[in-house]
């Protein structure tokens, strides 16, 4: 059974029945009623918990009361609040995975890549410009980009929508998320005009989600532990920045916005990244499992299960990803994204509402600059919730096959 | 000797000579050349390190690899990223110290109080207003307020300078820092117009700095561990907010800005606040020293030393603070602020440059909305640096007494 196999990969077993499903919450196993709402709106990476649990105390970090009192981490560094050990582990992991160039790059740490995104807008726009810099991204784009760009009504930059429709001749910032959130495809810039600035959000450019085909070498690249190791609660991201002045301005933004970034979380993130690197080189404790192999297998399995459920119905479809050679895995593989980008047939006018009626919370395509026949569904929740998702989609699918094409949200 | 007494209070001894001074940096004792620059520009609270070192492993926090992966802390709470144990310890400590009302208040956690300040501006201004909301504070005001208000060129709010000079009839936000940064005086609003919004920054309203005369009961109050326990590197602050809608908007700001606040640091801050509360109730480990008594004594001693050095010269003066009854200490006491607000006589046109020439980095009055005869000097650095400060001020003072009033920066 699909669910059982996944649970085994994930290192613990779960049983599901019609009356209840077991779920672990804060380490406590609870009975979830099988009719409870599952929230797959956010990309909350709880899938990673069981791996870290198996890794045991070796990955625990101890922070004494007298550590990290100062605002400063390294006053000789351009990014004075960056813990040197985090910088070291970031470079080591990128070298090992081969997903990004770190040589001759400045590392700027942020309170998640969300803060770094805002730091990048600040750094790439100009206070002396006549008008706000246009910020664009090709639809479907990450749903938070418009709000993050607009919420403070800055005169430095403004949201200008889908990059495909951008026809101004003024300076612009293009946001490229690759693999893309929500749809998982590899992305490039679409505007390619001289003087354009580009921010590459590479949060999902890790072997568990997508084949690592090149060592990314862009001017400004964003990463985060939330999607690499799964530690979203730590709020740690980093930028790899080619230009010194841009890195300085990003650092200035974070200085003004939050006077640096939690040292506790930086120290912890360093330890976790080290554990991931060690696991790849089998340097970890006995029984340590290669992090990326583990999660590649898990994602492959989840996607296989999801495609099995979808297969044979014409109510909704999933994107198909090309097979490409992954330099890290050493084999041809397709993407297994962190989100399922589900397209419903046109008669389901509002697929988010449709799924909500089936107690599955997702995010509508309208938030990503496309229409409401699309929804984004997190593939990173705990095993139990993923199984409920499969069960419910399976029921919807079966019902559709019974009832034919006139199915409406019940 | 002043220095020796302080070092004893601080729990370790230091020796100073003309050739070198011992300084602890990251737990390693280093020889500081006695002519090295001391940086007292920032309020970096390294003074607190030795206390926490003495508290030992009881205050260490252990965070396992599988903790805190989720973005969410408590989805039933208005501030969904606030760790419940931090909320509990915040309420407990305020009750114990008696410095702020927490009953019927919403707690919003932030990445330091700097982020909360920006969240407050966002929450108190209106996106529908015809023009940006004026933000004011009575000079001398915290040097970062103008920049924090202006750096993103928001259309929501704008810096409008000294509250004393504010004569608009439009809505405004008044920032009240009490005790005030830089000068240490207790503050109230100066505008007092109907419809005015007020943000109270109470970062320094703790017994080590000032007598606790009332339980503060304002609509919006900001606190931070940076100045209470001394853990600036953790970047944890909290707001106590009366109005639910304001608390919601502040939470929204932090959601957009950084998708919450480091859980690692919240868990750690909870442990440290608990240790402080326990120390006050003598519930801690054997040998645990009452936190506030310890730092009250230390600050009293530092101020006594500083005033001794200043006494008898007419080059610079310090503010005098009234004696008031401190409900926490149960005695009359004056303020012993985190910063010395030094006023030079008029012929020293630029006192920051003057002190820089004596290898003391400070912050000029011009950043606080007043003239350059003032400087702000941190009183929270490690013992060794504080001793160097005393030594250098003492020399300047002696030289001035020799040379008379014509002294210039050497």
From TrEMBL, chains A, B:
Organism: Nelumbo nucifera
Record GO terms (molecular function): carbon-sulfur lyase activity
Family that this chain belongs to: Belongs to the alliinase family.
Highest taxon listed in the record's lineage: Eukaryota
InterPro entries for the chain: Alliinase_C (IPR006948), Alliinase_N_sf (IPR037029), Ethylene_sulfur-biosynth (IPR050478), PyrdxlP-dep_Trfase (IPR015424), PyrdxlP-dep_Trfase_major (IPR015421), PyrdxlP-dep_Trfase_small (IPR015422)
PANTHER family in alphabetical order: BIFUNCTIONAL ASPARTATE AMINOTRANSFERASE AND GLUTAMATE/ASPARTATE-PREPHENATE AMINOTRANSFERASE-RELATED (PTHR43795), TRYPTOPHAN AMINOTRANSFERASE-RELATED PROTEIN 1 (PTHR43795:SF15)
Taxonomic lineage: Eukaryota, Viridiplantae, Streptophyta, Embryophyta, Tracheophyta
UniProt KW keywords: Pyridoxal phosphate
Coiled coil location: none
Protein name: Alliinase C-terminal domain-containing protein
């Amino acid at each position: 059974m699909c669910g059982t196999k996944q649970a085994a990969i994930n290192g613990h077993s779960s049983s599901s029945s019609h009356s209840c499903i077991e779920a672990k919450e804060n380490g406590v196993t609870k009975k979830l009623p099988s009719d409870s709402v599952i929230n797959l709106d956010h990309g909350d990476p709880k899938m990673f918990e069981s791996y870290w649990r198996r890794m045991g105390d070796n990955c625990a970090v101890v922070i004494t009361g007298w550590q990290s009192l100062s605002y400063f981490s390294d006053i000789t560094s351009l990014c004075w609040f960056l813990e040197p050990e985090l910088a070291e582990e970031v470079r080591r992991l990128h070298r090992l995975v081969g997903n990004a160039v770190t040589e001759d790059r400045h590392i700027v740490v942020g309170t998640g890549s969300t803060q770094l995104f805002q730091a990048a807008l600040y750094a790439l726009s100009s206070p002396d410009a006549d008008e706000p810099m246009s910020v664009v991204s090709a639809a479907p784009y990450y749903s938070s980009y418009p709000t993050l760009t607009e919420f403070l009504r800055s005169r430095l930059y403004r949201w200008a929508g889908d990059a495909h429709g951008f026809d101004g001749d003024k300076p612009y910032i293009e946001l490229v998320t690759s693999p893309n959130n929500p749809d998982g495809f590899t992305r490039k810039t679409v505007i390619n005009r001289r003087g354009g600035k580009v921010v590459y959000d590479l949060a999902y450019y890790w072997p568990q989600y997508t084949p690592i085909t090149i060592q990314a070498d862009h001017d400004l690249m964003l990463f985060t532990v939330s999607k690499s190791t799964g530690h979203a609660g730590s709020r740690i991201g980093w930028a790899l920045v080619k230009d010194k002045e841009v890195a300085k301005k990003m650092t200035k933004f974070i200085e003004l916005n939050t006077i640096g970034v939690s040292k506790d979380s930086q120290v912890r993130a360093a330890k976790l990244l080290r554990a991931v690197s060690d696991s790849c080189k089998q340097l970890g404790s006995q029984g340590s499992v290669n992090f990326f192999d583990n999660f590649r297998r898990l994602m492959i399995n989840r996607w296989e299960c999801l495609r099995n459920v979808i297969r044979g119905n014409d109510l909704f479809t999933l994107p198909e990803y090309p097979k490409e050679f992954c330099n890290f895995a050493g084999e041809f593989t397709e993407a297994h994204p962190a989100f399922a980008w589900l397209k419903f047939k046109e008669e389901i006018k509002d697929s988010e509402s449709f799924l909500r009626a089936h107690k599955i919370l997702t995010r509508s395509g309208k938030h990503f600059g496309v229409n409401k026949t699309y929804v984004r569904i997190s593939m990173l929740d705990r095993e139990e919730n993923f199984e409920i998702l499969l069960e419910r989609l399976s029921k919807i699918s079966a019902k559709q096959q019974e009832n034919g094409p006139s199915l409406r949200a019940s």
